[in-house]
Amino acid sequence: MSLPxxxxxxxxxxxAKWSLPGKVLLGCALAGVxxxxxxxxxxxxxxxxxxxxxxxxxxLQQQLTEKTGLAASLELRTQQVRSMEDNVASLLGQLPxxxxxxxxxxxxxxxxxxxxxWVEGISVLDEIPRQLYIEQPMQIxxxxxxxxxxxxxxxxxxxxxxxxVQDVTLGHQGALLRLNMLAKTYRGTxxxxxxxxxxxxxxxxxxxxxxxxxxxxxPALQAVHVPGRPALAPNFxxxxxxxxxxxxxxxEMVGTLSRGxxxxxxxxxxxxxxxLAVGDxxxxxxxxxTAIQDAAVELVELFPDGQGAWLQRPRTLVLNVNS
Length: 323
Known about the structure:
The protein is an alpha+beta fold. Helix content is 32%, strand content 29%. Strand 7 and strand 8 form a beta hairpin. The longest helix has 53 residues, at 20-72.
């Protein structure tokens, strides 16, 4: 059974004879068809474009809000940048414009003598140009007791010029420690004709070894590190003895010897044993023996404070019962 074929020409010819409700329904159907065709052909793309424009508007509104906030804080940011530029210029102005290697070496020697450190060698390396300054590295080798070396390194931060310390290594060298480090001083590349500003080092770091222990010695052999007290300058006209050319840490007490009412201390350095009495000198810091006991030798050392005065500190050599 086949369905009858729809004849649109007959439908249009007979539409005039339709009743009013039929004509209304036909008009509504035709209007719906037209709207559907328009929606498919134009409405969908336009709606997608509208959504895209709305999303872009929201993004632009967010950017506008951010730009408005930045514009409002532009003056404050400008002041901050100028302040940072002034700080950088001030720091660069504190750097010397000419090499000061001799002055740095003099300061290093002064600090080493003030803290009982023996500087074995200083190698001045090639300068390293940077964008705003020039580095002057120096390789330093020194020896001494742990607390003396630590105090020496800490005192470098109190110098009137910028000195930094890098690549620090410690190793045993007999009874002493050997310190190798890379120290750097700096000078400016451009001074613009201005006078060098005075460096304000700020609160100095002070190494206080009195409450600390030497990590390279067992607890039983820890010695109290007493800070210096004001004292008179040593007698530089006095001839220096053989034992004053050796570090105090190279000696160990191995016993005592009595001759009548006089007592002597027996100190060993390497393979040799030396005999000392009260009043004898020992070590490079003008150390003078003040008392000899059965288990210890007491002496007083003199050393410069780095400011033109002299200080004294007591030192004790304890009997080595295993010798």
